[in-house]
Amino acid sequence: MFKIFTIRDIIYFIMTIFDESLILETINMIKLYNFDIRTVTLTISLRDCLSEDVNKVCDKIKYKLDKYAGNLVNYANDIENDYSIPIVNKRIAVTPISLVGESCTHKDYIKIARTLDECAKNLGIDFIGGFSALVEKGCTQGDLALIEAIPEALCATERLCSSVNVASSKAGINMDAVLKMAETIKKSAELTADKDGLGAAKLVVFCNSVSDNPFMAGAYCGYGEPECALNIGVSGPGVVRAAISDLDKNADFGVLTNKIKQTAYKITTTGELVGRKLADRLGIPFGVIDLSLAPTPAVGDSVAQIFQAMGLEHAGAHGTTAALAMLNDAVKKGGIMASSYVGGLSGAFIPVSEDAGMIEAASKGYLTFDKLEAMTCVCSVGLDMIAIPGDTPESTIAGMIADEMAIGMINKKTTAVRIIPAPNKRAGDNVVFGGLLGEAPVMKVNNLSSENFVKRGGRIPAPIHSLNN
Prior knowledge:
The chain has helices at 7-15, 20-31, 54-69, 72-83, 97-101, 109-123, 141-156, 175-191, 198-201, 237-245, 253-282, 303-310, 320-336, 356-363, 369-375, 394-411, 451-454; strands at 36-44, 87-94, 127-134, 160-168, 172-174, 203-207, 228-235, 286-290, 383-389, 415-422, 430-432, 439-441, 459-460. It is of the alpha/beta class. It folds into two domains: 41-207, Anaerobic Ribonucleotide-triphosphate Reductase Large Chain (Alpha-Beta Barrel), CATH 3.20.70; 230-455, Alpha-Beta Barrel (Anaerobic Ribonucleotide-triphosphate Reductase Large Chain). The strands form two sheets. Strands 1, 2, 3, 4, 5, 6, 7, 8, 9, 10 and 13 form an eleven-stranded mixed sheet that branches. It has a two-stranded antiparallel ribbon with strand order 11-12. A hairpin with a 6-residue loop joins strand 11 (430-432) and strand 12 (439-441). The longest helix is centred in the middle third of the chain and has 30 residues, at 253-282.
């Protein structure tokens, strides 16, 4: 028998840490300010699913996913009702499929993609990640076959997400893979032109990808991860904005950062409590809690609106990068005090199409592509959910990826590119994906050619600080 935990249990738990006013504030962050558990992501190793026969691989995958994730949705719904805290997405992340499919004599990655998608549908899972490859130093035959299969796989499935790591601070930037991924992004968008290029919205290119990230499209179960674990992604931009708005308008930056840290502490504490109870109910280890502030298109649930609460007229004003750096750092400092198992990406996401304030800023021209790139130097990930004209050359997309990979490589941080070259769209048009993926204006890009640079091939060497043994 499992004990039923209610909102009273949460209040009692928090009473051991906070005074009465903070208890009421915690309740309000759930009821009024869009606080939720953005995702519970079950990581499942598929390393024991290898076979020379792709049909056997698919059968093993079905068995493994059903074994560990069969009760995920039901138990998550129970926890959601017990605690009165919304759990928005239930997800699965698996071993990079390039490794799993490489064992097959006939490398039919499309069949594996369809199997993963079918399993997710049958289990009631929102997204399944791990159609992935790690190629920062070069590609195997399996890696190349998977990358070739990505556009068709994303077109033929609903819940599948894909990621490819093409750079790291240790290995440098694999420019051959960068160029290949630019082509892959373009094809993924073109094959889903009837959905404004949705395929590209489920594909991300990484530098320094992490193996315990619960967020899509980049989640996968890394080689060093356990057989199965539960990773939690919380969300609280609306809570942080409300907390800052309650401060005196003349409060200095020390007071401001302390308020953000206190709020992040409460968000993390509540998120880990829910995550641990769900992991216990599933009978699997608790993995990590990702502290990232993940926005939604809903009004009031925006990272961009946090900047306004800080005193900027709008996201994109001079000072935005400094505000984002302070926010990112304070969230991490507050969250790390609340949990010993912080992981994933942890910081603040700035996806254009998934944040109501970012959508508005981009539509009004306050945010440009170049400003977004500058902000990625201090935020949690990178160029995220940005729609660009469909006729943007592959070489220009490769240049965008290379720039973002360089930021991650030099600064020893995770950076990523998830851009959508929207078919038949021009700068100023709109794309609409719906749900958490939202909508976005198509942004203008630099028309200068990058072709001769990105086609040189080979690897951009790792920086000198990579030699740190």
